[in-house]
Amino acid sequence: MTAIIVAVTTATVQANPPEPEILPGTVITNQNWGQYRGFMSEGLIALFEGSHFWRMPAEVELEIGPTRSIPLPKKYLADTAQYSNQVKLIPTREGGYVPSEYVAGLPFPHPLEGDPALIGQRIFWNSYYRYQPRVQWAPTFTYTLDGFGNMTRTSEVKSVLSQLAFLSDVGYPRTVADSGGYYFVKYSEQIAPQQGKYSTILDLTPADPTRLDELYEYVPTLRKSLRLSQAARCAPVFGSDYLIDDESDGPPGLPQLYRIDYLGEKKIVALEHANPVAFDSPGGPTQLDSEYYYPGTLGFVPFPKPAMGKWELRDSYVISLRRLPGAAQGYCYSRRVMYVDKENYFGAGELDLYNQAGDLFKSQFVLLYPAEIPETGGDVAELLTGPNVGFLINFTNKHITVSPGLKPCINSDCAKDGYLDIRRYASPEALMKIVQ
């Protein structure tokens, strides 16, 4: 029996009467959604309730299909079997925990086993080190919808994400040569509109989880890059509702600075096998593609139509993250609640973020389909940048950001465009090559 979360504002899970079963073919609407609220995040419930400014379109339908497996790649699973038994969690001087002796794969394939107080930490680090390819690239667009009902495409971004250490990729070393001691690098360069062209954010995560990330921004009007402080984690990305610390679809930066509590298990409705054709183009200048999305208007979210694909139930772990007392002051959120897919440790498509008063501030939804990894014989993965669509609903400021990422290149498919070049896309040096 699935444990149902009654209040994600607490650190425990209580048992409710069993929810109605959701069978394939079920259609969730504004009229019947209350029967199925036990399978929703707090953000999705808020949209159906209409308890905040933003609500679902009147005709919205979520058709439930069968749950389809999204397994982890074979090499990643082999590395899990070989190395996971040596990984341990060790306390940091700040009061958090980090893995020791991690090599590759899932660090904790059986996260519910062991010290109960550290279940949340084990689930989190599985999500933090979930499979990502050596490199992934996709064109990403940003649409904003304001509190007056105006929806506009505000930017186009070239997103290049590079994993340089702890790799489980066929044909690549465990650690990339000349990686500079980094684990993961996020490179985001704005290419439109013209007034923002070449503005770039570079986030370098060290392989040593006790070290601070390095944040840089390239400012084209100055023709120079600036080293940012860690306070910049709460800075918006290219004027959107996404902050730098929201860019990983779940895990924030500086994870050693968090208390992480396990709230329980929950089946979550998510759209993780979207229609691939919907990722061919983002839409028009003032709305997403009307074939796949309801229009974004005053108070109503541009939610996906049934043509976008069938939703499914994903078995998920639910964890709560709070900054430790010494690191909480001035941080952008009081708490984040992650819904972590039990099969592949991706974010199960949903994330709830809370303000300093403990009220729901933002909710994130991710619509995606698994992309095939080259040279693996059919392995697939859920990616951070295309093919996915990120929705960030800002309940407090009456604002929405939608970020469609189109079809990507992965690993060897990216070689012809130079995205495997560390000096160009995965090091501080990269920022000085932007306008060359």
Structural class: mainly beta
| Contiguous runs where pLDDT drops below 50 for at least 5 residues | 1-17
Determine the number of helices (DSSP H or I, runs of at least 4 residues).
5
Summed up, the domain count is: 2
Percent helix among the residues? under 10%
Number of strands: 20
Largest sheet: 14 strands, antiparallel
- The helix-strand sequence is EHEHEEHEEEEEEEEHEEEEEEEEH
Radius of gyration: 20 Å
Q: What is the 3D form?
A: globular
CATH architecture of the largest domain: Clam
Strand content: 25-35%
**How would you name the CATH homologous superfamily of the largest domain?**
Lipoprotein localisation LolA/LolB/LppX
The CATH topology of the largest domain, please? outer membrane lipoprotein receptor (LolB), chain A
The CATH class of the largest domain: Mainly Beta
Question: Mean pLDDT across all residues, rounded?
Answer: 93
End-to-end C-alpha gap: 59 Å
What does this entry show, briefly?
The chain has 436 residues and is mainly beta. It has 5 helices and 20 strands. The protein has helices spanning 42-49, 74-83, 119-128, 325-328, 422-425, and strands at 27-28, 62-63, 88-91, 97-100, 135-145, 151-163, 182-192, 200-206, 214-219, 224-228, 258-270, 312-323, 335-341, 350-354, 360-368, 371-372, 380-381, 388-394, 399-405, 409-410.
Q: What is the strand and helix layout of this fold?
A:
Elements: E1 27-28, H1 42-49, E2 62-63, H2 74-83, E3 88-91, E4 97-100, H3 119-128, E5 135-145, E6 151-163, E7 182-192, E8 200-206, E9 214-219, E10 224-228, E11 258-270, E12 312-323, H4 325-328, E13 335-341, E14 350-354, E15 360-368, E16 371-372, E17 380-381, E18 388-394, E19 399-405, E20 409-410, H5 422-425
Antiparallel strand pairs: 1-2, 3-4, 5-6, 5-19, 5-20, 6-7, 7-8, 8-9, 9-10, 11-12, 12-13, 13-14, 14-15, 15-18, 16-17, 18-19
